[in-house]
Specification:
With 128 residues, this protein is of the alpha+beta class. It contains three helices and five strands. Strands 1-2-3 form a three-stranded mixed β-sheet, covered by helices on one side. A two-stranded antiparallel sheet has the order 4-5. A hairpin with a 5-residue loop joins strand 4 and strand 5. It is globular, with a radius of gyration of 18 Å. The chain starts with a strand and ends in a 46-residue tail after the last strand. The structure holds zinc ion. The site of zinc ion has 7 residues, from loops.
Length: 128
């Protein structure tokens, strides 16, 4: 499975789906070697996993970016987007190590919980 992150532009909210090849992730996270990652990347490309992810992203109206080719881009709104995963704290940790290969679709949490959301908080204790 291809590893992709989807996040909104902080300036205008356009959604970007970024594909991070495993060769890149393995090297950064230390969970494998670049060579191991390249093999998986080739497999993802060959099986169409990357293409399928791209089609899903584009069908949802997201902008698709291959992080192997693009480390930074400028949104149409003018905001500079840094795609270099090494600059972000949430580098996926060895999800593939020891647990089979089921990395799949990873989505960053884009919003914090809403303050007024009905979470069964202080007002959720109506007895019967
Ligand atoms: Zn933008």
């Amino acid at each position: 499975m291809a590893t992709i992150f989807t996040f909104p532009c902080g300036g205008c909210g356009r959604r970007y789906t970024v594909y991070y090849p495993k060769a890149l992730l393995y090297e950064l996270s230390g969970s494998g070697t670049r060579q191991m990652g390249q093999q998986e990347d080739e497999e993802d490309a060959r099986t169409g996993a990357v293409e399928a992810a791209r089609r899903r992203a584009e069908a949802a109206g997201n902008i698709w970016i291959d992080a192997a080719a693009v480390q930074a881009t400028v949104c149409a709104c003018g905001k500079r987007l840094d795609l270099n995963i090494a600059h972000h704290p949430r580098v996926p940790q060895s999800k593939t190590a020891g647990r089979g290969r089921q990395t799949g679709f990873v989505q960053l949490p884009t919003k914090p919980a809403k303050p007024g959301a009905p979470t069964g908080g202080p007002h959720g204790r109506h007895g019967s």
